[in-house]
Amino acid sequence: MSAPHQHGGATAAGPDGASAPTGPAGGAGPLGIEPSAGRAVDVPVPDRAVPAPATGRPDGPAPGRESADAPYGDTVGRLAATVERLRGEVKAAHAAADGRALIELAKGVLVERLRCGPAQAARQLAELAAQAGLSQLELAADIVNQAARDQVAEVADDFVRRAVGESGTDDAPDASVAVRLRTAESAALNAGDTQSVAESLLEHALAPLGATAVAVWTVGPDASLTLCGHAGFGAEESERWRYVPPGVATVARQALTGRRTEWFSSLEAAGIPSIGHTRHPDGARVAVPAGTGGRIHGVLEICWPRPLPPQPQAVERQIEALAELCGHTLESVSAPPVAVVPRPATGVSELVDLAGGLYDPALVLTPYLDPEGRLKDFRIRHANEHFQDPAGRPRSAVDGALLLEAYPAAAGEGELFERVERVYATGEPFRARRARVTALVDQVPLASVADLSISRHGDSVLLIWRIEDETARLASLLQHAQRLGRIGGFEEHVLTGEITWNSQLFDLYGRDPRETPVSLRDLAAHAHPDDSVAIGRFLQAVLHHRRATSTAFRLLRPDGVTRHIRVIAEPVLDPDDALLAVRGAYQDISAQHWTEVALAATRDQLAVTEQESAERNRLALQLQHAIMPPTRAPLDAPGLDVAVRYRPAETESLVGGDWYDAVVLPSKKILLCVGDIAGHGIEAATGMVVLRNALRGLAVTGAGPGQLLSWLNIVAHHLTEQVTATAVCGVFDPETRVLRWARAGHLPPVLVRGEEASTLPMLRGLLLGALAEAEYEEAECRLEAEDTILMYTDGLVERRDTSVHESLAHLLAAAKAPADGLEARLDALLTHSRSDTDDDTCLIGVRVS
Hints:
Layout: H1 72-114, H2 118-132, H3 136-148, H4 151-167, H5 177-190, H6 194-206, E1 213-219, E2 225-231, H7 235-240, E3 243-244, H8 251-258, E4 262-264, H9 267-270, E5 285-292, E6 295-303, H10 313-334, H11 348-356, E7 362-369, E8 375-383, H12 403-406, H13 416-426, E9 430-441, E10 444-457, E11 460-467, H14 470-484, E12 487-493, E13 499-501, H15 503-509, H16 532-544, E14 549-556, E15 562-573, E16 579-588, H17 590-627, E17 640-647, E18 658-664, E19 670-677, H18 682-699, H19 705-718, E20 725-733, E21 738-744, E22 750-753, E23 756-759, E24 778-782, E25 788-792, H20 804-815, H21 822-831, E26 841-848
Antiparallel strand pairs: 1-2, 1-6, 2-3, 4-5, 5-6, 7-8, 7-11, 9-10, 10-11, 12-13, 12-16, 14-15, 15-16, 17-26, 18-19, 19-20, 20-21, 21-24, 22-23, 22-25, 25-26
Helix pairs in contact: 1-2, 1-3, 1-5, 2-3, 3-4, 3-5, 4-5, 4-10, 5-6, 5-10, 6-10, 18-19
């Protein structure tokens, strides 16, 4: 077991200021008090244990009594050293007092449990500490933890369990958490102001965590923040940040608004200012709401000098425990004296009087806490006379009930209860127009729209809501519908000549609302002359035939703008069927009119384009099919069966560039080739024709397939417009049964021999047209009787979701299947092809008899 950590040679202070005895680990103390025996604990305040004497020094004259011949500079230095030493002694005395406060609290626990006097409790504490091998300060923290069983005790136990679990031994150096937290708590209870609390928290609990500064903010009734305590910040900095108005975004404001702990690994990266940000702009910050009973009294903000990595949960719980301590301190500092007779929450009677004078429905709410002091609900203390329940209940049905009992549907996220809870916690009022308020009527949720106002007054909350009136809501909907539809309403009395327009109609006419509205009889004077006949028929139907009708015309506005308008009107008759008035509406249909004109023009253009495209594709397909018929007549080659298949793409508009050829050369050898031009359309079809015919002409020279592809590459590169293609070319000699072949970026041919099928070797060969010059490798294959050679384009095998290797494997499996002749084999391959690329397919089969 390691000894307690020491600073400056002093040991931990006992109840009388002497150093605490240490000894071997002991068992449980009397009355079940179990000190944490055998733990190595870092005592946070041993350097403040016993102050050194303030008078006399063993190594020189007393302060202020330097020799007369001492230089002036030496005198100033000695005075400064003396002042610094005295400050340290005062600081150490305060620390010793903080430790003694915790020890006195533990002695009080022993007095209550042992039912003994203070002197006997002090002796018992010293004996227990000696038995456990701990300082009295450490043992005092254990005793208070076991007696209190509060959040600090839970944090300390959890931290010790984690430390022991990670180290595998009880010798955990971080077991001093309980001492630090309890010492900070005792100092805070002893302190008379939040400034002392901030200094104690930093010195005892936060400095061991690496923190260099701390600020304690209190929340005002208007959600403003006031710096009520700080440590580690300069006087000028703290004065500058003394008050933060409502709405200003700071680190503390983030925690207050979100009602949760906010961690910032780097203040500069967060982009949010706060106290001390100029000194450590890249330092880490954490802000924790400090409150009790659901109400946030302030915020605890802690500063580190450098970026902070994610902290373990045990450290986070320590900081939350300190924030709770700050919350109790802020509550006790700001709370009024407690009266002897129980009374309602602060300001309830005044708030009830205020709610009674409102013309809007209002509720006065007070917090409802559980036995542990946590906010559970709000009590409806008063509902004013104008209260209007969304469910239609009288105010007596909700007066005195809990808010969630009266309105259980208000507990959802973003609902009423969460808003009330936030206002009570932060003090920041909430205003919203057309918010949703949900009530249960016979277990059926009924949503209403209301204007909400929620504000905190002392310890109470005033909730004002105004349920939207059905008539006003419908009028608002009608007004918005008229605005969105560009509709203006009117009514014109025939007898009096009085004309009523709404604001939208003045906008449609481009007239000032102070001008006189236009009568229906004068409508033609404001319209295009070509529309006068239609307007005359409209007026005759309404005024003389007394029936509802409509018409469209072009309105000529005073600003020179012409709008297309549709007017709808109906007559208003008295009981004797006499015409009293005409009412109706104007609608601006300019956008609709021009859209219809544009659509008509587009339809005409589209019809022409479709006709041209269809004719273009028809010609291309005719050209392609003339050269590449789906089947062709048998080839006149003794001892050899040749069959071809061509399947165009499924989409007729995609004219492809696939081609094939099988022709007997003058040398009686047979030219076999397939190719695929890149692209679709008429350009691909014409490129296919060029290459096919060029290859036919070049083959007459008797050159081999490799040389033919080299010449064809020159044609593709120089004599066509950027045509690229793949091809496989073969020359078969019927006498020797030898097939010489070459490939240009194409898939190799397939050899079917007996019950096996395999691909020929993958020869070197670049696709046609890619380079100006290219050489192509040749190979020979001697065929046997009943052998079949298959040449094909990628339209037979290619799939979007399958690799080429898998597609070839499927082709080989289909090719080796038994077939009744060459024609049947080619048809089976086309039938069982799994290609899904909508590409043309060319297939040549050669079977040796």
